[in-house]
Fold:
Amino acid sequence: MFLPEHWPTYYAKAKGVEIWGLDGEKYTDMSNCGVGACVLGYGDPDVDLAVKAAIYSGSMATLNCREDVELAELLCELHPWAEMVRFARTGGEAMAIAVRIARASTRRDKIAFCGYHGWHDWYLAANLAQEAALDGHLLPGLEPAGVPRGLVGTALPFGYNRLEELEVIVSTHGE
Structure:
């Protein structure tokens, strides 16, 4: 994303802050480190052992594991304002959950947002009303094909750090 001519598209190996491209060339990741998800770096031995242990215990079930409950309890203890926890697998899924919860608790349909939030219908609906509404939010040209037309006008983007744009949305839509 930042150095398309100088950074590999695919990797063969990653460890700590280093990444090896398919050609064997080694790079130092001083930017996103797995899109920001790897705070311990790539291939952390403690994390790898814990993941392997979880896999050997069985990683696919329709039930929650005890670690889910332990983590949820810890998160509620660390954040006493939170009454419950909901887990997601991706950032886009987390946003879809947050939007659903916000709409359910406020009984309102419209969502004001800034930034890129995935490929879910609630987000791509911004491009139903205006084809390029999401262009400044990371990835230009996101097609809303397959997004129900009934969602027109429900996703209202504003620019990062542009409070005046958010104020216009609030004053215009009243929600």
Observations:
- Residues 48 and 94 are 24 Å apart (CA to CA).
